Amino acid sequence: MMDCMATSKRNGREEGEKSLLRYSSGTIYAKTLAGNRTLVKNVSFSIRKGEKLSLIGETGSGKTMIALSLMGKLAPNVKTEGLQCILDGKDCSHPKVASSLLGREVAYIPQNGMEFLNPSRTVKHHLYDSLHRAGVRSAEAKDKAASALSSVGFRDIDEILKSYPFQLSGGMAQRVTVALALCTRAKLIIADEPTNGLDKEAASRMLEHLGLLFPDAGQLFITHDIGVASNADRILVLCGGRTMEHGKSFLLQNPRNAYTKGLVSSLVSNGMKATPTLRKRTGCPFSDRCPEYSERCRDERIHQREGEHEWWCNG
Fold it and tell me: What is the dihedral of CA 75, 53, 173, 179, to 10 degrees?
């Protein structure tokens, strides 16, 4: 027993040493007039260099809160207890430290480029701002900006540079946000629904492109699209701010948690099966809709594991 515990601790240390990012949410909660409301609780993961991790779950599952906490951009009424974030050996748990890395070592790709870009500033000004933030000298800015735009598929560089966001299509604006990420020295890419509004073929190209453009960076995808999630190396499934299942992407082919099974069965290709509301919610965030509910669910969440695949479920 002691040998197993020692091995587990040693494996944990080795994993931590190899990881580019180590994240533990602690408790993220919102202060409201009705009292504190827990948004995310005890979600932990790591990402290695060049690795892609997808966070999936319904709207309100906690995906965006985790991303915002990584960037130091939580709303003023949202607080954390026990948040730990280590990026390439640097402790960026404090929001001021995390936000100082944004645009330098951390790059954010939003789900809507048109809304993200400042409508009163040209593409050139957006790119130059990012380059200056990353420490690029003014004399090199033009060549660097042109290179970034060329890398995401633009040809008429001079025309794009002088354009305002409202003069671009949605797809073009999204490509500009990827070019902005290229202007950083990003070790971590946070992509929030990067394929939103794109058809399946365009989405596939976008994901492939991100992999080619940022081969050494860790990539965190925030998505509700299981098709997008399946392109990642690993998947973490969230429900109600808690981890439900975590493992390599093929877990979607054989999910063990009832909530993950519900997400997979809700796909059009699987008949869009709905899971009905069955009972009052107990300890598990999916208990009110879970078809595999048992009396044990009222009192405990059972952690189960097979190799790198782990899930929290009594089923």
Answer: 110
